[in-house]
Amino acid sequence: MRDVVVGNRIDQYLVTELLARGGMASVFKATDGDTGALVVLKVPHVQYESDVVFYERFRREEEIGRRIQHPNVVRILEPREKSRMYMAMEYVEGRTLSAILREARPLPVQGALEIARQVCDALACLHAHGVVHRDIKPDNIHVTSTGRVKILDFGIAKAIEAGQAQGLTRAGASVGTPEYMAPEQIRGRRGDARTDVYALGTMLYEMLTGRLPYEAESSGSLLAKKPAADPPPPSAHVPGFDPALEAVIMRAIERDPRDRFSCASDLLAALRDPASAETVGRAVRPRRRAPHRRVTSTIVLAATLAAIGALAWLSAPARVPPRPAQVAGDGAR
C-alpha cells in the first residue's frame, strides 16, 4: 500500500487537493462520489498504519469525534466502507485561529470573546461526555467566514469512563503544545477538564493582548518557567484592560488547577458576564487582603488609644478623699 496522493480514489471519495502534510498524516480535500459533498480526509502515512499505539490513538480520535455532536465540533463522517485507515470529516470553509492571529493581533475584545465563548460551549459538551481535549490551541480552532467556530483534532484527547482515564501516554510523559500546556501536563499528569480551561484561558489572553502569558527563548525554558512563576496580567501589556475580564482570565490560567474554574461551563458563565463572575486565587488576592488591612488598622488604632488613655491615668496625681472622722467626729471630742 502506498501513500495517498491527489487524484487517488479512497472508497467513495475522490482526493482533489492536499490541504496539509504532517509528520504522521496528510489532510486532503475530497469529493464524496455518493453525495457530491466536499469532505476532508485525514490519512496516516503508510509507515504508521502498522504502529499499534498510533492505530489506537487514531481509532480513539475517530470514536470520540463520532460520539460528540455539537455545532462547534467538526463532524466525523462514516464512509460506506473502509479499505484502509483514514478519517472522513465535514469540510469547513474558513481559516484557523492561528492564521487569523498571524494577520492581526490583538483581536477586538468582542470578537475574541465570541470565539472563546463558542470554544467554551464546545468544551462544556466534551466534558459532559467525559472527554478532555488536552490540545486546545489556535491551530486546532477553525473559524468560518460567518464567525462559526469549529474545534478540530482529538488526537491526544482522553476519555474518562467510570472514573478511569483511558490514555496511551507513557507514565511521566507530557503531551500537548508547550505554549498552551497546563503545568500539570508539564509534570506528566493526564489532566482533566481544568486542563482545557487553562488552554482556553491562555488562548484568550493571546487574542486580547497579542502576547502569550509566558515567553521564553526555547520550549525547554518555557516548560520550566510555567510551573514555577505567575504570568503578568493582561493589563501589563494593554493599559486600561477591563479588570473584571482580567480576573476571569487570570483565574483560568492559575498554576494550581484547584484555583481555576472547575469546568468549561463555569468559565462560559464567567465569560458571558465577567463583572458578576466569582474570582479566586491569584486574580483577586489583593482584593482579599484589603478588608483584612482595614480591620487590622482599626484594631491597632483602638489599642493605641487605649494605651494612651491608660498611660494618662497612671501619670495623673493621686487624689486623697477626706476621711469621715473629719466630717462628723470633731464635735464629739
Comma- or semicolon-separated keywords:
333 residues, Phosphorylase Kinase, domain 1, 38% helix, alpha+beta, disordered C terminus, single chain, three-stranded antiparallel beta sheet, 2 domains, six-stranded antiparallel beta sheet, Transferase(Phosphotransferase), domain 1
CATH topological fold name of the largest domain: Transferase(Phosphotransferase), domain 1
User: If you average the pLDDT, what whole number results?
Assistant: 82
Question: Which spans of ≥5 residues are poorly predicted at pLDDT below 50?
Answer: 160-174, 284-333
What does the largest sheet look like?
6 strands, antiparallel
**Could you give me the name of the CATH homologous superfamily of the largest domain?**
Transferase(Phosphotransferase) domain 1
Pattern of helices and strands: EEEEHEEEHHEEEEEHHHHHHH
Q: How many domains, in number, for the residues?
A: 2
Compute the gyration radius: what is it? 31 Å
Total helical segments: 10
What would you call the structural class?
A: alpha+beta
Through-space gap between termini: 138 Å
Structural notes for this entry:
The protein has 333 residues and is α+β, with helices and mostly antiparallel strands. It has helices spanning 52-67, 97-103, 109-128, 183-186, 193-209, 219-225, 243-252, 264-272, 285-315, 325-328, and strands spanning 9-10, 13-21, 25-32, 38-44, 76-77, 87-90, 95-96, 131-132, 141-143, 149-151, 158-161, 164-166. The chain has 2 domains: 9-90, Phosphorylase Kinase, domain 1 (2-Layer Sandwich), CATH 3.30.200; 95-285, Transferase(Phosphotransferase), domain 1. It is built from 10 helices and 12 strands. The strands form 3 sheets. A 6-stranded antiparallel β-sheet has the order 1-2-3-4-6-5, with helices on one face. Helix 3 (109-128) runs antiparallel to helix 5 (193-209), helix 3 packs antiparallel against helix 8 and helix 5 crosses helix 7 (243-252). The chain is globular.
